[in-house]
TrEMBL record:
Domain Glucosyltransferase 3-like C-terminal: 173-332
Ranges where the Glucosyltransferase 3-like N-terminal domain occurs: 11-154
Protein known as: Sugar transferase
Keywords: Transferase
Domain of life: Bacteria
Membrane-crossing segments per the record: none
Lineage: Bacteria, Bacillati, Bacillota, Bacilli, Lactobacillales
InterPro entries: Gtf3_C, Gtf3_N
Keyword Cytoplasm appears in the UniProt entry: no
GO molecular-function term, one example from the UniProt record: transferase activity
Pfam families documented for this protein: Gtf3_C, Gtf3_N
Amino acid sequence: MKKVIFTVADYGNGNNAGPKAKRDVDHYLLQSDFEIIHQQLNNKSKLDKIKTAYWVIPHLFNNIEKFDELFFQYPTYSSYVMKRLVKKMRSKSKKLFFIVHDVESLRLFQNDQTYWEGERSLFNATDGLIVHNHEMKRWLQENGVTVPMVELGIFDYNNPQKINQNSEYDRTVCFAGNLAKSKFLNKVSLQTGKLEIFGSYPSKHYLKGVSYHGQMSPDELPKKLTQNFGLVWDGDQLDTCSGKFGNYMRYNNPHKASLYLSTGQPVIIWKKAALAEFVIKNKVGIAVDSLENLDEILDKITAEQYQLMKNNTIKLASSLRSGQFIKQAVKNIENY
């Protein structure tokens, strides 16, 4: 059987973690006898999109025999190009599945019905979807997606660093990400706990207990994640996750959670996040309503409670590093 994972190559260099989730899917499915195909599509201008849609895509796979299964890493960030691409992939493969990294109608185009109609038609043109979790699946079903869907559970994370085994509890938390869109960090103030942050575009001034520790590549960053917890939060408020990206947490699996957990760090996550259910069920962290009382939250955790979370996280880290979740999801959608 000829099985292919097809990825539109946006693998940049440097410290941007954006492409890592797709790179990791490639890495793990290569271990499951998939062939990896990358294609560079230039979508920077309207002229580029027209050239891609009417010249590049029609000639894709011309000298390759038909596939039995094609798994496409969705999206490509051009709905115009996607329509042509799906038509081409359908003609070249007996089965077409999407591995959904983002539902843009829930992320950048919230409440845009026209955009959703286009995205829904793309999803329904497949033979099935691998989606993040139950909440994403429920929303898609309620809004007209009719193809089979299976839940990933959580993103795997190819982590080259050693799993952090240190279980000493000292009330430390880390946050990694794009600090420019994480305005809530400017409002965190701690008396007994410590919050250490990593990423691009830091603020010039943070309050007591908060310190900036620089920016690193996704592969190097885990060396620095020696704190007790990794924080999964978004927006500009302490009492809720706000804005487009904060609301998106109600449906998606934030990739930074996989970074923390694969390193051996339990997480602190917003209670209304879709991934909170996974965290609580697997006892690999805590879910909270607000960060306004973060000191009190950290003070209430006993050394014994933390040790249990730490032990569970170390076990989960091994699963994330082996690609267990994406490999199982592929099997589930194939056997649906």
